[in-house]
Amino acid sequence: MTPLGREIASLIAVEGPISVARYMALCLGHPTLGYYATRDPFGADGDFTTAPEISQMFGELIGLWCAEAWAAMGAPPRVVLVELGPGRGTLMADLLRAARAAPGFREALDVTLVETSPTLRAVQARTLEGAGVPVRWADSVHESLDAAPPEGKRPLPLLVVANEFFDALPVRQFVRIADGWRERVVGLGPGGELGLGLAPDAPTDVALPDCPEGDLRELCAPALDIVASLADHMARHGGAGLVVDYGYVSGAGDTLQAMARHAFVDPLAAPGEADLTAHVDFAALALAARGRGAAVSRPIAQADLLERLGLAARAERLSAQATADQRAGIAAAVARLTDRAPTGMGALFKALAFADPRLGAPPAFDLADPRPA
Ligand code: SAH
What we know:
Rossmann fold; nine-stranded mixed sheet; 17 strands
């Protein structure tokens, strides 16, 4: 067992089985032994590769999305750009470079990076050293929103981007058995090993739909809380947000997964040493945003997002100045980011936008629920 596994086993021995959400939160966020606290997990030598690490075009196109959303907001002279879970800071660096194309946009930006991992904060600071835009860090979305209003003035409008952030937030899992729902928990097997089980009684703090016996549902309260807070700020003070992640719009089930060295592993096998995620419930995020008065887009596939933002033209421009090897790399990145096979990044990853309803449809999206201005 890993050091964190031993710590979790002692906790369970004392307190009894813990929820899947608490297990996930400990694995990812334990201050000294958690996955993100201890490492930079990205890239070929790490555990997984994200879209901004595949190609600079990803962050550049998201930068164009932000610039267009800012223009639609009436080009406010100051805007807070929040990135949730910025990883190595690569997306933000590419975004800020592409932002030069929109006169006045970069000058309007105050960047806040929401990041809990000290290791990754240090990497982000290095990546963004020469970016030429003020950058600060916050531990949580609430802290980033509290920091937004300058003393005595109206809170600033907000741009928010998040790639592969929401999948890292802890989910609770519930299983429908014959006489109702039970929460899935992590307990100890006969040999002291971690094992999955069900809480003995029905949960009293959640409302779940009626489902056939055997169904499993996931709830990610922190994700809904974050989206609701952002949407509330946007509806009152202006702004737009873009979420990209792997996930579903309907057809939920058990999506808890662990990944180490680019392969799936048992989520209980190596606590703290494998990345632990759950797919994002886009329908639930959309509801949370709409509930606070934001206009919400129809979720679209990542391939559609990138194609609508001009991936082909961007690849062509980059290729024009590239060597043959670089051109092959650019073509491979385009193919990987827009792969529409069911498990390819272009289809598995989805994008959702939500915004101040006065903005109209966010760039590249249709509104699911058009509202009059
Ligand atoms: N967006 C980046 C990294 C994705 S990995 C990319 O696309 O490459 C998830 C990121 O979210 C990491 O930076 C991780 O440290 C951060 N993170 C995970 N849980 C978090 C939490 N609860 N609060 C803030 N940041 C978190």
